[in-house]
Every structure is written in C-alpha cells, then in structure tokens.
Amino acid sequence: MTSRILLTGGAGYIGSHTHVALVAAGHDVVILDNFANAQRTVPERLEQITGKRVTLVEGDVRDADTLAKLFARHEIDAVVHFAALKAVGESMARPLAYFDVNIGGLSTLLRAMDNAGCRRLVFSSSATVYGIPDEAPTPETAPFRAMNPYGQTKITGEQMLGWLQAANPEWAVGILRYFNPAGAHGSALIGEDPRDIPNNLMPFVAKVALGELPRVSVFGNDYDTADGTGVRDYIHVEDLARGHVLSLEKLLSTRQGHIVNLGTGRGYSVLEVIAAYQRATNRDIPYQITDRRPGDVPIYVARADRAVEVLGFRTEKGLDEMCASSWKWVSGLAGKA
Ligand code: NAD
Ligand code: UDP
Predict the structure, then answer these.
(1) How many domains, in total, are found in the chain?
(2) Cα–Cα distance measured from residue 58 to residue 9, given in angstroms and rounded to the nearest whole number
(3) In terms of C-beta density within 10 A (0-12 exposed, 13-18 middle, 19 or more buried), how is residue 316 classed?
(4) What pLDDT score was predicted for residue 79?
(5) What gap in Å lies between CA 288 and CA 124, rounded to an integer?
(6) Is residue 289 part of a domain?
(7) Which residues line ligand 2 (CB under 6 A)?
(8) 277 in active site
(9) Which residues does the chain have with pLDDT short of 50?
C-alpha cells in the first residue's frame, strides 16, 4: 500500500538514501529540510535517480507554522525524523544549539504531528546512546550513558518518545540506533559531503586517497582490540535506508513501536578500514599512529538479532562495497570541482 511519508532532514546523507528506498518501495515522500547541512542539488539528483518529482518544503523543523501548513497541505501517514545536528565535538562547544535543534525540533515536530493526528514516527537514534558500553556486541537493553551533549539529545529524544507512547497508545514509534553509516548510493549521485575537514574515519580516508589530505591519523593503537585500533560496526547507507522502510512498514501495518540497533553485527578496526579503502581504490593511503582521541569508545558493534526478529532486517553489503561506493562518489565530486 502506498503511504505518504514526511522526511525531515530528507536532503541530508541518510535522509536522501532513505528517500530513494521509499520511492522504490512505492511510497510518496515529502522532504522538509532547511539545507543547513545539505547541498541544494540533492533534490534534482534524487529526481535523476528515481525518475519521480521530489516534493520539497524548504523550512526549519523548529518552525511550528511551517509544520502546521505542511500537515494541512499533505496528508502525511508517518514521519521519519532525520533533521538534527550531529557533530560530537561541536556539541561539546555549542550544547545549546544541540538542545535547540535536536530536542526543541523534536518537540515542535511531535506537537504538530499530534495536532494533525499523525502519530507514527521513525526516529534517528545512535549507538552513541550506549556511551562506553560494558558489552560488545551491544544489545538494545544496554543502559543509556551520555558522553557528550549530542548523545544526551538522542537519549532525551528516545525518552520523550517513550513517555509519549505510554501516554497515548495511538503513538507508534520506531527508534533506530544506527551504528556507523558509510558508503554512498551506487549511482554516485548522492553521498556524504562534509563541508569541513571530516571528523569521521571513512570520509577522512577518502580525502587522503584523493590526495587532498596528506595522511590519516590513527587515533591510538593501544586499545584492547585485535590490532589495538578502534573497532566499529560500519553499515552501508543503502542497507540503513532499507531498515527505515521496514521500520515504517511495521509501524503502518501493526502500530507496534520498536527499538532496534541497525548494524551488521561485525566490527572492523581502523587499520582494516584503511586497508579495505586501499584495495577499493588501488591508491596508497599513508597513515600515522597518534594519541587516542579524547572520549573515544574502543569498540562499537551492534547485537543485530533484534532487527532480524522484529523487522526482518539483514544487511546485504559489506565493507568492500562501502569503500567502493564511497570512492565512486568522492572521486566523481572531485572531478567536478
Ligand atoms: P545530515 O547532516 O547529512 O542530515 C541532516 C539533515 O537535516 C540535513 O539535510 C540538514 O540540512 C537538515 N537539518 C538540520 N537542521 C535542520 C532544521 N533545524 N530544520 C530542518 N532541517 C534541518 O546527517 P545524517 O548523517 O544524514 O544524519 C541524519 C540523522 O541520523 C541525524 O539525526 C543524526 O543525528 C542521526 N545519526 C547519524 C549518524 C551518522 O554517522 N551519520 C549516526 C547515528 C545517527
Ligand atoms: N578514527 C581515526 N582517525 C580519524 C577518524 C577516526 O583513527 O581521523 C577512528 C576513531 O578513533 C574510531 C574510528 O576511527 O576508532 C571511527 O571513528 P568515527 O569518528 O568515524 O566514528 P565514531 O567514533 O563516532 O563511532
């Protein structure tokens, strides 16, 4: 059945890939984005990929009037809420901006949805809610631990949504805790496009492969992991996008809320990622071992079985495909610069 889905932050990295997956699954999509962290070319690129017109509302998720008009104009069945600020380091320096967009934005959105009688929501959460977890792979039952204001906003968001569902069973919320999204769409028309020097490993490695940065700094090789470097559960953004379709369809067909990790269940070290990128590009990727990054978590790997049980979600693409699609995307961008 076709549903009409609002994607807040739908022009961003994960939102744009989810748009493609939703259209492929036969749904109508409306994007709300203020382009604070997205390129203006994304909507037309989405049209190129899907062959369908994009319905875009340019605006801010904190703006109640914009939301009221949007819900009055479009009959929305469910919302996926991506719009947020997401840089951990920046959140330490500017916590109020994070409270404002990530918590204030969520609250304004929930009020508008409630007024419109639209009470199904998929929420972008993160493995960061686990802080430094006691177990890896980490199950959804692990306790919340805020390590920084960004993580706090995701914990607070999840808790708000829990109270809302407790207050009114009409609400059904899918909370998706992403591990480390990586890679780009196979068309190389959309992908992650950080404006500054990237903080995350894969986009940083990409810039070194391109020759735009001299070497990768490997933040510590004295962790309790096989090669001493940090381990993460990288998930292809196209797999992640599919997880949203499954979560939405579950909410729409059963009205049952869920909290699931979205990861592969398998971790790779920093050195393994560099080696995989080298294989995908046939380029030399110099690196040096430096000090640990303050606040870094040694290992984040998802317990991935609940996503299989609840959503029937299994990842299909591995690290090599993440590196190859990332490279196709960034080398295409560099060619146009
Ligand atoms: P992104 O920055 O690429 O996308 C966010 C989008 O929201 C952007 O298009 C931006 O322009 C838009 N936006 C920001 N503030 C807005 C506002 N006030 N009103 C309207 N639009 C606004 O980020 P992403 O990587 O696609 O992340 C999407 C969601 O997933 C975020 O909630 C993020 O916290 C969460 N998440 C991301 C990761 C990751 O590693 N990328 C991991 C875990 C969770
Ligand atoms: N990392 C690194 N050099 C970099 C960026 C990241 O060694 O320039 C390491 C980091 O210490 C962690 C892993 O790569 O072990 C993934 O880091 P990222 O910032 O991408 O994800 P997060 O730490 O938020 O999970």
Answers:
(1) 1
(2) 10
(3) exposed
(4) 98
(5) 33
(6) no
(7) 180, 199-201, 204, 216-219, 230, 232, 270, 293, 296, 300
(8) no
(9) 337
Residue 10, classified by CB atoms within 10 Å of its CB into exposed (0-12), middle (13-18) or buried (19+), is: buried
Q: State which residues form the domain around 10.
A: 4-180+235-263
Which stretches within 136-287 are classed as H helix? 149-167, 201-210, 237-254, 270-281
Nearest ligand (C-alpha, residue 151): 1
| The pLDDT of residue 197 | 87
Count the Cβ atoms, other than its own, within 10 Å of residue 159: 11
Is position 12 within any domain? yes
Residues 130, 150, 178, 234: which is the catalytic one?
Answer: 150
Q: pLDDT digits over 281-295, tens only?
A: 999 999 999 999 988
Instruction: Give the pLDDT of residue 77.
Output: 98
Q: Are 193 and 245 in contact (CB under 8 A)?
A: no
Q: Ligand 1 pocket test: which of 7, 8, 14 has the largest number of ligand atoms within 8 Å of its C-beta?
A: 14
CA distance 123 to 22: 16
Q: Residue 310 in 3-state DSSP?
A: helix
Q: Tell whether 164 is covered by a domain.
A: yes
Which pLDDT belongs to residue 134?
A: 95
Residue 26 lies in a domain: yes
Question: Which domain CATH number covers 33?
Answer: 3.40.50.720
Beta-bridge mates of residue 182: 236
Ramachandran area for residue 35 (φ above 0: left; ψ -120 to 50: alpha; else beta): left
Q: Residue 32 Cα, ligand 1 centroid: separation in angstroms?
A: 12
pLDDT digits (tens, 9 = 90+) for 238-266: 999 999 999 999 999 998 999 999 999 99
In the beta sheet, which residues pair with residue 300? Answer: 232
CA-to-CA distance for 181 and 31, rounded, in angstroms? 21
